[in-house]
Amino acid sequence: MTASAGRGRSRLDRTHWDESLPDGRLDRWWADLTAAALVGTARRPVPAPPDWPLEARPDASPEVALLDAAAVGSALRRAGAVPLPAEADERTLPAAPDVLTPPPARARQLLDLLLTQPPVGARLAPRAIEAWLREAARRGVRVHHASLVPLLEVATRTRELREAVLPVLDSRGAWLAAANPAWHWAGARSMPGGHPVDRGRWAHLPTDRRAVQVRVLRATDPGDARTLVESTWRSDPAAARADLLGALEVGLSLADEPLLERALNDRSPGVREVAFGLLDGLPGSARALRMGALLAPLLSTTGLLRRRVHVELPSAPSQSAVRDGLGAVPPGRSQRGFWLQRLAAGAPFETWTRATGLDPRVVVAGLEDADALAGLRAAAVARHDATWAQALLDRGWDPGLVRFLPPEEVTARVLTRVAVVTTAPDLLSAIRLAPAPWSDHVSTTVVARLAAVPRVPHQLPDLVAVLADRLHPSAAPAVARLAAGDDRPEAPLSQLAQHLTFVPTLAEAFS
Amino acid sequence: MTRWSLQAVERAAPDAASLAAGRALAAPGPWSETGSTDALVWGRCQGSGATPYQVSVDLGGPAYRCTCPSRKFPCKHAIALLLLWVRGGGSITDVAEADPDTLSWARTRAGRTAEAATARPARPSDPAAKAKRLEERLRLMDGGVEDLSLWLTDLVRAGTVQAKRQPLSWWDAAAARLVDSQLPGLAERVRELGSAVNRRDDWADHLLGELGRLWTAARAWRRRHELDDRTLADLRTCVGWTVPTEEVRSADAVDDHWQVLGAHRSDDGRLQQQRTWLRAVGTGETVLVLDFAVRGAPLPVARLAGSVVDATVARYPGSWPRRALFATEPTLITTDHPLPPGGTLGQAFDTLAAAWADNPWAARVPVVLSEAALSATQVRDGTGSTVPLLPAEDPWRLAALTGGRPVTVCGELETGGFRPLAVDLDATGEAR
Lengths: 511, 432
Hints:
The complex is a heterodimer of chains A (511) and B (432).
Chain A: H1 14-20, H2 25-39, H3 62-79, E1 84-85, H4 105-116, H5 125-138, H6 148-157, H7 162-179, H8 184-187, H9 207-220, H10 222-231, H11 238-246, H12 257-264, H13 269-280, H14 286-295, E2 299-302, E3 308-311, H15 319-323, H16 335-346, H17 350-356, H18 360-365, H19 370-383, H20 386-393, H21 399-402, H22 407-418, H23 424-431, H24 440-452, H25 460-470, H26 476-483, H27 492-510
Antiparallel strand pairs in A: 2-3
Helix pairs in contact in A: 2-3, 4-5, 5-7, 5-27, 6-7, 9-10, 9-11, 11-13, 12-13, 14-16, 16-19, 19-20, 22-23, 23-25, 25-27, 26-27
Chain B: H1 6-12, H2 16-25, E1 31-36, E2 40-45, E3 53-58, E4 63-66, H3 76-87, H4 100-118, H5 127-158, H6 160-165, H7 168-180, H8 184-199, H9 203-222, H10 229-239, H11 245-250, E5 253-267, E6 271-280, E7 286-294, E8 308-315, E9 322-326, E10 331-334, H12 345-358, E11 365-374, E12 378-380, E13 385-388, H13 395-402, E14 407-413, E15 418-423
Helix pairs in contact in B: 1-3, 2-3, 5-7, 5-9, 7-8, 8-9
């Protein structure tokens, strides 16, 4: 077919039509007819048809003439329609050939089952799907094409699956995801930072968007991100200055010191507070040295073995010390105690070891002052310092510090904590920190403790989600025994037991 | 006859609502003159009216009778009676002699069943009465078509802008008159037109074309005596005068192996429809099997595209593509038959135009496209022509399977675009 859309054609008398109705005449007549129909034959005459090979009824009323014309015209236009030629640049390219291995039949069936009727219950289905995806990625296997759509849909709803989906999509999956805006999280892998920063409109963007962009940019080019913050520093309101300064915590370094020193002079207490927090994380900064100089004279050792650390409370601060954070005190706090906490948080750790001649563990063990300990903890968190976190943890469990320890020490700390927790939420907050996958020993210990604490139904789902990801399959029988007390099929612990027996079958399905 | 179990009564209920209503009535309060024998249970149930409903159950059939106006079968009264009876408890007493009225009903019924079993096909119908019914129906339809013609001329005299301003109820009223005139097919077109005029941007163009097709149907109906059988059958389909299935079954059946080309389900809120396209492996003829289910009721399971069944298929009268039904229960031959060779989009459009030349009211034709690349929004053939895809349940599935690479695709071509139904796949489920 070569005729363009709308050109009249009829099987009855094709030649005649082609000659008698050159391009466009039928369309023009139909447009006139539509216009007449819009206002009605009472007000507009029916346009004369092009050279019909059929004779119009001479006796027809205007209404009948219009309906006759609509009948013939619509038949001609419909029958004459042809497909459109594709625009050259609109041609979407087909997907490139896949590079990974297709999954074996058993693994395919298993994923289909997990996506439609998960045998582990809806709550743990994402965990089981994730286990499938990780096993596939480990073996260089891709997702079969038929399951791409349901998988992309599940991962669009369940954000935590996305990272595991990406490595197994292969060319076909990436091609598909790029075509659907809802799946752009999977198609746009090449742009981890999202949209590039629009410098022209930077000052006019909402603060929360700017703060996100600064954080993203800090990961690749911290200096550039800081320049961006400085570019509007004079004109931004106090709240925006505080938020944007806070975003510099990503990739913080001494290069940020000039801006932070400038922020110490800020007229807004909120901005100054952010600056204190960031400078606490820079023990090499001038402010840290100033704080250290104020702290050092307050430290001494006492006791027979000189292993007890005594701290004097600071006295009224100078103008410069007020600027560094020893200013107004929150209501209800001891003034000098608060200043001591500030000094402990801001001073370099060396101030403590040098002034006392003791190593960090001994310093913390011999320290009784609560404000000084709180300051040390803030410093350890701000500086991600494993040594001092370790020393502080010797005095008591603190989930906020555990993450700075090396992985094997984290596990040891968590197990110590697990042995003493008495509630399910406490157990959860502890085991969350233990890096996955867990060994047989860790799994056994955790399940044994779970058996000993009261299991309040509404507290179980979160706990079970964490256990499903990390427990060693060997813990399955113990979990099944725990679940036996509750035989509802949707009970979280029953589902956990099913999940744990399911996961080892994954590896078989792939082999 | 052994007493039924409670489960048997529950299974007999047509739906959960009837069962719940039956349970509410299954108390001795409203019941009187109850009794049971080996084969029958009966009683009177005081409803909202003055006269109690008379309820009878023949346990052998089982068969149910009740004087209430309910269209549920069995009705809640019959279920309540059975519930009372299975519970025992003395509210229904076993007696030796059945209630005479119930007994005569059961005897007549048994007689009828026996008669039907022995002389089923030769059910004598009265030709005179039949002719009278037909005459009555045609008179109604003639009146409906005249009414539609007037409605159409009034509409174009006042202008389509006026029609656009009308509420949906105006279109529905016109459709309801057509239903009353036994023209449900035309009624459906008018109702659909009302919603399209409200929904579409190109409503003026669309409305004028549809008015033309309705006008064509109305004019053709007046001259139906001049039409050949095939065109008359197309017109009957268009106005919604269906051919009874027994008539189809007994005429024009073909025995062949039928390949399932593809199937599509649609749901317009009131009615679900399933279209299954079959292709005779021997002759290459394509037919359409239609299944309907009212909302909520299940449709028959869709036949797997690519499977081949052995069956006798009876065809409705009319132009290609003809509607058909399975006259015998199909038996599966294979599940993995490749699609027949396809053509270009241009050839597919020619096929559609040819179908319209025979039947101006045809909605769509089945086509097989070769070298067709599918995305989620359009199909492109080997010559570089494109057609938009019609909204489908899952436009992404076929795109995922084919990856935009050229494959053989089977689907439906309509005015608005192409609806892909199946692609050629190998046994592993990945596209060839």
